[in-house]
Automatic annotation (TrEMBL):
GO biological process, one term: peptide transport
Gene name, Swiss-Prot/TrEMBL: sgrR_2
Protein name: HTH-type transcriptional regulator sgrR
InterPro entries (alphabetical): SBP_5 (IPR039424), SBP_5_dom (IPR000914), SgrR_HTH_N (IPR025370)
Segments forming domain Solute-binding protein family: 164-355
Native organism: Serratia marcescens
GO molecular function, one term: peptide transmembrane transporter activity
Annotated ranges, domain Transcriptional regulator SgrR N-terminal HTH: 7-119
């Protein structure tokens, strides 16, 4: 990015000359910029036109000119970062921020959290690692699972605080008396994120793929046949009665993706940018349920943010500041929490070294020995339980 490169050049100049006026030759500037004298003159003129420095030359070869850096690199970086964000150039803004990793937290903090961007509510979240591919059938990370649940819809959905599955792509469903046949009736006018109409035939194709995939197959193992008796009705015929099918269809492995374009879904948000440094979700205008309040969600991948120690990746501080820009200096933390994890010990019986009975005996001995309490768990995040 040309602007980032120009700021990097100015930063090099400022660090060598400082903020006071100095006498310098064009040859010395060319050495600082690692370029020819001709290009150095052009660059100085451009920086002067932008108001970053003043330059007063004297006639005659080798004469010293007066150069004065008018702004600090930090001031310019913050100013340019704001301009790039207002222009919607989020990738450029992140590249600009990475120029000064030592002050990355201070530089990004005013732009993270809840913001009004171009009149729309935007949430920017700093994150400590690159996100996995947002595929419901391959991902393992909890952050990715949360994102995917906003990108893709299911026939049903589960809502916090309600143990019963709720309508999603299907507005209601019927179960036969014996529990062997389920019919899910689709909403009309459903749309994929790309604006394409969502059809029952497409969902049937996706469900047939899910029946064959090892990640989703267990959820559909009891399904004998899936059919489309009506364009807006998907029918499941089961081997055995199953009154939990609606729950399973709301789980992550059974979310509906476009049969030909798996990255496209029908959830409340659509994926508009997926880069190693920035993931951007925007509200899906054609969403079939209540639209979310936020218009945009951005994950800014900032692994250079300082952490408490070498093992602090799982405790990486995600700071989200809510309030007016003028109040940031007085902001204080109101909540701090950590997601608990777990560890487990499993024996691989596939090699045939141990029988199943021997494996069970060995696990029992390990539990009774107290060995689990001495496992090296960093940061005391997980407490082993026998």
């Amino acid at each position: 990015m040309r602007l980032v490169h120009r700021l990097s050049q100015y930063q090099r100049l400022y660090h060598q000359l400082g903020s006071a006026p100095v006498a310098v030759t064009i040859g010395e500037l060319a050495a600082m910029f690692y370029c020819s004298e001709r290009h150095a003159r052009t660059l100085v003129q451009q920086l002067q036109d932008q108001g970053w420095l003043s330059w007063h030359s004297q006639p005659g070869r080798g004469k010293r000119a007066s150069l004065h850096c008018l702004k600090t690199p930090d001031e310019l970086r913050a100013q340019l970062l704001q301009q790039l964000l207002q222009q919607g150039n989020h990738q450029g803004a992140l590249e600009m921020a990475q120029l000064d990793p030592q002050h990355l937290q201070d530089l990004l903090s005013p732009h993270l959290g809840g913001q009004w961007q171009a009149g729309s509510p935007t949430l920017r979240i700093p994150y400590y690692r690159t996100l996995e591919a947002l595929d419901p059938l391959t991902l393992t990370g909890r952050a990715e699972q949360h994102l995917v649940s906003t990108l893709h819809a299911g026939l049903t959905r589960l809502m916090t605080g309600n143990p019963e599955p709720q309508p999603d792509l299907a507005h209601h469903w019927q179960i036969s008396d014996r529990g062997l046949r389920w019919r899910f009736f689709l909403r009309s006018q459903l749309r994929w994120h790309n604006g394409e109409p969502l059809t029952g035939h497409q969902l049937l194709q996706t469900l047939e793929k899910l029946q064959r995939h090892p990640r989703s197959q267990p959820s559909l193992a009891n399904v004998a046949r899936i059919s489309l008796p009506h364009p807006l009705c998907i029918q499941f015929d089961l081997h055995l009665p199953d009154y939990w099918l609606a729950h399973r269809l709301a789980e992550l492995p059974c979310l509906m993706t476009h049969p030909e374009l798996p990255a496209i879904g029908a959830g409340p948000f659509k994926l508009t940018l997926n880069e190693p440094q920035l993931v951007r979700l925007e509200q899906h205008a054609g969403y079939h349920l209540q639209h979310p309040y936020l218009d945009t969600i951005e994950y800014w991948i900032t692994p250079d943010l300082p952490t408490a120690g070498a093992d602090a990746s799982c405790q990486h501080p995600v700071r989200i500041t809510i309030g007016q820009q003028d109040d940031l200096a007085q902001a204080r933390p109101v909540q701090r929490s950590m997601s608990l994890g777990w560890c487990y010990l499993a024996l691989n019986l596939r090699h045939g070294v141990l029988s199943e009975a021997q494996g069970q005996k060995l696990l029992m001995l390990i539990q009774q020995s107290g060995l689990l309490s001495h496992l090296p768990i960093p940061n005391s995040v997980i407490t082993p339980q026998p």
